[in-house]
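User: Um, what's this?
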Amino acid sequence: MNIRKKYGNWALIAGSAEGLGEAWSVSLAGRGFSLIMTDHAKEKLMALSERLGREYGTVTITLPMDLAGRDAVERMMEKAGETDCRLMVYNAAYSLVSPFVDQEESDMEKYAEVNIGTQLRLVHAFSRRLAAEGKGGGIILMSSLTGLMGMQLVAPYSATKAFAWNLAEALHHELRPLGIDVMACIAGATATPAYLKTDPRYGSLKPLVMKPGAVAEAALKKLGKRTLFIPGYRNRLSYFILTRMLPRKLASRIVNHTMEKMYDHHPHRSGML
């Protein structure tokens, strides 16, 4: 499928500077898209924009911003309207690997705004514009296998990723008649700089750790074909076993035991995921 023919020439990536965001940017630039790139890491954002221009001739609009800000959606939608952008990836997320009671009230606000509030408002505004103009489009929401069930040490992150998963599934049914494809990319462990900084230690149940580029490439090929897509055969197998073969109580015990063992070497178990 020629996704530029289907979704136009511009793509918006919320959270685009590094890790999976960088992978989305590179994958879309490689397909000839011009990009609206947003991220709070201004220096990394500008450096990636310059690199895409050199390597792919990509036209970019950069919006350095805190996606927890109340004006974030307005600023992104202004540029989306100016460029007739019809493809959007919401990759931004806030997370800590830390006991719930050790986190601050400010952390709770960031989970609520970045992972839920801004995402929900942007998807709403973006899909309303496409519907009002009678144009099709595409929306990809980054979710995670941590949203499969409640996981200790990443409790708020786990809950918000379940939100993204369910939002995408519901909107697939509502928006498909309008020509708008919605998909949740449900990634497993991914070798992003943020994930690697948490220094996970694996036991006998080592997860598949995918490269960010492999995740983005696989997901783009499934847009318009799948509603919930899990990149990686081993990740899909794990999902099948945990949800189809095991009672939820046992599956929950296994994944929570795994999380405990992955991070029990950290005195405070903190760090960005």
In short: The longest helix spans residues 105-133. The chain has a mean pLDDT of 93. The chain has one domain: 7-263.
